[in-house]
Amino acid sequence: MIQFTPEVVESIVKMASYIGAGVAVIGGLGPGIGMGYAAGKATEGVRRQPEARGAIVTTMLLGQIISGSTGIYSLVIAIYLIFGGG
């Protein structure tokens, strides 16, 4: 039987914080894949229709900024869990 002394509880909380930080970092995978896919499709669009380059690039950059913010949020949460949450 495990006795839940303050040291054991602190270790469990720290372990859970590290696991949570790892899961939060996985949240950066989706935006990274999506941003790469969007850049590839924008490149295809510019190749097909060079005169629409300005509109295509502007729309792509706006979408990448919005989708990239979720990756930044997951990184901030991971840093908080590792250094300040436990």
UniProtKB/TrEMBL annotation:
The answer on whether this UniProt entry bears the keyword Transcription reads no
Q: Where does it sit, as one GO cellular component term?
A: proton-transporting ATP synthase complex
> What membrane topology was assigned to this protein in its record?
Multi-pass membrane protein
Localisation per UniProt entry = Cell membrane
Q: Could you tell me which SUPFAM superfamilies the record lists for this protein?
A: F1F0 ATP synthase subunit C
Main location (coarse class): membrane
Q: Which UniProt keywords apply?
A: ATP synthesis, Cell membrane, CF(0), Hydrogen ion transport, Ion transport, Lipid-binding, Membrane, Transmembrane, Transmembrane helix, Transport
Q: Which GO terms describe its molecular function?
A: lipid binding; proton-transporting ATP synthase activity, rotational mechanism
Keyword Cell membrane set for record: yes
Q: Which residues cross the membrane?
A: 15-40, 61-83
Q: Which InterPro entries match?
A: ATP_synth_csu_bac/chlpt, ATP_synth_F0_csu, ATP_synth_F0_csu_sf, ATPase_proteolipid_c-like_dom, F/V-ATP_Csub_sf
> What residues does the V-ATPase proteolipid subunit C-like domain cover?
19-81
Similarity field: Belongs to the ATPase C chain family.
Say what the protein does: Key component of the F(0) channel; it plays a direct role in translocation across the membrane. A homomeric c-ring of between 10-14 subunits forms the central stalk rotor element with the F(1) delta and epsilon subunits. F(1)F(0) ATP synthase produces ATP from ADP in the presence of a proton or sodium gradient. F-type ATPases consist of two structural domains, F(1) containing the extramembraneous catalytic core and F(0) containing the membrane proton channel, linked together by a central stalk and a peripheral stalk. During catalysis, ATP synthesis in the catalytic domain of F(1) is coupled via a rotary mechanism of the central stalk subunits to proton translocation.
Database matches in HAMAP family: ATP_synth_c_bact
The protein's name is ATP synthase subunit c
